[in-house]
């Protein structure tokens, strides 16, 4: 049986029906990892033995009837900025190279309660700062669709692992698009929930007011089931919000009748790749055919989202990352003279270039004399952006946008010009600033064979609307469903094929 | 309105951020920051006078804990990852008295 | 003629609140445990941990704000204060800058016979830092986070004080108010109350303030007094020499009785405050303020009036006793047990104050229990012991909180009320002192005193002096 080809929910059903055991499921994932990992490099840590042991324990609880949920026994991977007790949690940074947390993040605990078997920790841009997974201290992750391309980021490891079938699903985190953009690049589905829906307790903070954990999986059904498992009101997270209901699977309805869809004209202008635009508009037409009312509108303020985002995220990051100082955990420099020299050398050696860049910017915009001009200005802009979305959601149930201006770029392309990388976040950062939920769903491939993702943004607390729209689209697909990469040989063949095309 | 970041500013921000940059890194940092600030300056086109600075997106407030002790001896976990420790304390270079 | 200078002083007073748990986590605030035992991921800044505010902190802060006539903010928020130091595990302190919990208050003080208001600029909540222990052995510092995250309020006064006396009066008043509220024990020695002094001098009669300095590390009233005098002298000297006072933070060394600047290149004092994204705002309703107001305990002025009325204690005595919440608590508890408030008051006013003064102690340091004081009052009132024995026993109570009943029993200090034995001794005393007896008969009343003394001596002090007196007159 092709276990790794199954979705998480399909696999869960077979485990429940005793067709497959939890141990078989983990073994299948580990086998696939063994096959493809040296080329894709999705993981920072793979817990070979621990995963099998946990699978046995989970199987016992399935057998005795104490675990009955749809994800019981299904293997999962977790982004490496989410704390797992006694399992390395590095944020893909040298400064946390050897860090083993003493507690597990609430979202992971929720997954474990649902019977998930965590098999390892996925690669990412260092401290989630980047959109390519190239800023990882442990080396790049490659896009399974074409190994010469990036998987996107910062949850690139999680998305690549799902696309390469190394695990049925993974957790990611999204501060400015870090779930949605790599999901689009890797042809998988990812949800960034409403701020406050999934506990941030145990998520190593980048931009605290923007960060959310979310699911990454092969289809919308999986994402809905995973979100149902991880979302909770957590008293340990003061920004966690008590929601009316946590069952998101009830929104898996194949019908868009009466749905009002807004298309922000300002998202479909120059800068957006023509193929991406075409595929997205084709997908919108599918929803229209299924009964949705589609209308173009001016969202406004689009060009201000990125500067506001980088001011806020960098400022918060500069403070959040000050705790990494060589005193309590993580890396400490070998030679130093005195306290401040120890701090400086530890941090300068422990952090990579992109992280330092953002810490410097964040420290500057908060420093004496600049706070009002930069930080307060950005917070005011954020308020205006939120108002613009409020107005849009008075008229529309969901807003449809690209997840990224292009498909996955070639490795090394973005690092040379950070500004260019920042501009790639244009369609995703607004949802973080306004706290909105967004889902990225595959809508086909470009001429290079790389996946194209479409983003559906909902109003606060209206995950169900975006799930319904995405599910309807998925069920009514008029394009070929992107085939996930199965084995190395196929990957190599594709690569050769694409190289041939490029020439 | 091109921003100019001086050597002193980079030095100063390095002190705040506790980062030690090499000569080349400093030059890069200056260039990067100038570029970013030039870009961020487009916010000045926007009239934000009427908008209250928004730090929290949702109007939730008064999230509290009750004053009840629930932690046992945490020293082992607290010190588990310490790069240097002594006498159940973290060991650091001498601080100024 | 030498110029006259006026000292202008404002205080930043930090008070550790008497909550059971820390401000943002449920670790105990208990003092004096082994290093890092009262710690968790939150108060040690572990990656991924998040703060959750202790409601009691807000309520204590509101209570202090109300008792110091502050306006309580309807909306208050926390901010991050960013600076690197190892006692601060996150390298930022969660504090309040932009919207503190209380503002615009005052307390009334009395110094040098004059009453005066010291205004409070603002009061905010924040977390305490850990403790740094200097390790002489290998010249490093050791960090203990047991105190990290203990709740503090910082009370910032206006620059309204002009002398050491006013500063001490202000601090004593604040301490009394806070102790009465039960919001803190305010022990300077243990650091649960700490004061930073902002001081400047100006020529008498001028309006403009001089440049101020901030003095830290002051952990007793004496240190505060010395630091103020020292800094005043230092600033005047600079001005007289035509030099400028530099605005800076200085650390007082009470052993050397001098201060030094805490400046360093690495300490930019640019704290980059911004709203704490991990905590949500606190909205304080009128109802909530009303509840806190209704719950306020009896404060000193109310207690003083009640003592006068209920116990018939003189104003002066009532003022002294209520001047310390601790002493007032002992007074009330002991009075309730023995039912003799005036006697209890006497022990506090005379012997207790004498011993405190002799030993240079504060009323807060009284360590005896009201039960033992009440027993002593009963022993004296029932004439089981005489007053000189009682004083001796009280010294033991004061020092070691001994049980006076057991102590008197074990040391055989009970007054001997066996009249036969007494008469025998008296007969002997009279016989041995014929001169004194003769003098008494010839009208020299004084001579009796000598005989009483001789008798008491012979009885080893354990006789009731009144009884001795009466018997002597009868038998002589």
Task: Present the secondary structure layout.
The complex is a heterotrimer of chains A (503), B (97) and C (476).
Chain A: H1 8-16, H2 22-40, E1 43-46, H3 48-63, E2 75-79, H4 106-113, E3 117-122, H5 156-163, E4 169-174, H6 180-186, E5 189-192, E6 212-217, H7 220-230, E7 260-264, H8 274-289, E8 293-297, H9 302-320, H10 339-350, H11 353-366, H12 371-395, E9 398-402, H13 418-423, H14 429-433, E10 438-445, E11 451-458, H15 463-475, H16 488-502
Parallel strand pairs in A: 2-3, 2-4, 7-8, 7-9
Antiparallel strand pairs in A: 1-3, 4-6, 5-6, 5-10, 9-11, 10-11
Helix pairs in contact in A: 2-3, 5-6, 9-11, 9-12
Chain B: H1 7-17, H2 23-40, E1 64-65, H3 75-79, E2 85-86, E3 89-93
Antiparallel strand pairs in B: 2-3
Chain C: E1 5-16, E2 53-54, H1 55-67, E3 71-72, E4 75-76, E5 79-82, E6 92-95, E7 102-111, E8 114-127, E9 131-135, E10 140-144, E11 151-157, H2 164-181, E12 193-203, E13 213-218, H3 221-240, E14 249-253, E15 258-261, E16 274-275, E17 282-283, H4 286-295, H5 300-311, H6 315-322, H7 325-338, H8 341-358, H9 370-381, H10 387-400, H11 404-410, H12 419-432, H13 434-441, H14 446-458, H15 465-475
Parallel strand pairs in C: 13-14
Antiparallel strand pairs in C: 1-11, 1-12, 3-7, 4-17, 5-6, 5-16, 7-8, 8-11, 9-10, 12-13, 14-15
Question: Could you walk me through the main structural features you see in this protein, from its secondary elements to its overall organization?
Answer:
The complex is a heterotrimer of chains A (503), B (97) and C (476). Chain A is of the alpha/beta class. Chain A has helices at residues 8-16, 22-40, 48-63, 106-113, 156-163, 180-186, 220-230, 274-289, 302-320, 339-350, 353-366, 371-395, 418-423, 429-433, 463-475, 488-502; strands at 43-46, 75-79, 117-122, 169-174, 189-192, 212-217, 260-264, 293-297, 398-402, 438-445, 451-458. Chain A has a single domain (23-300, 384-502), classed as Amidase signature (AS) enzymes. In chain A, strands 1-3-2-4-6-5-10-11-9-7-8 form an eleven-stranded mixed beta sheet, with helices on both faces. In chain A, helix 2 runs antiparallel to helix 3 (48-63), helix 5 runs parallel beside helix 6 (180-186) and helix 9 (302-320) crosses helix 11 (353-366). Chain B is an alpha+beta fold. Chain B has a domain at 7-45: Histone, subunit A (Orthogonal Bundle), CATH 1.10.20. Chain B contains three helices and three strands. Chain C folds into three domains: 5-290, no CATH class; 298-410, no CATH class; 419-475, Orthogonal Bundle (Arc Repressor Mutant, subunit A). Chain C is 40% helix and 20% strand. Chain C is built from 15 helices and 17 strands. In chain C, the strands form four sheets. Chain C has a nine-stranded mixed beta sheet. Chain C has a three-stranded antiparallel beta sheet with strand order 6-5-16, with no helix packed on it. In chain C, helix 3 (221-240) links the parallel strand 13 (213-218) and strand 14. In chain C, helix 7 runs antiparallel to helix 8, helix 9 (370-381) packs antiparallel against helix 10 (387-400) and helix 12 crosses helix 14. Chain C starts with a strand and ends with a helix. The chains are: A alpha/beta (503), B alpha+beta (97), C alpha+beta (476). Chains in contact: A-B, A-C, B-C. At the B-C interface, helix 1, strand 1, helix 3 and strand 3 of B face strand 2, helix 1, strand 9, strand 10 and strand 17 of C. Strand 1 of chain B pairs parallel with strand 2 (53-54) of chain C, so a sheet runs across the interface.
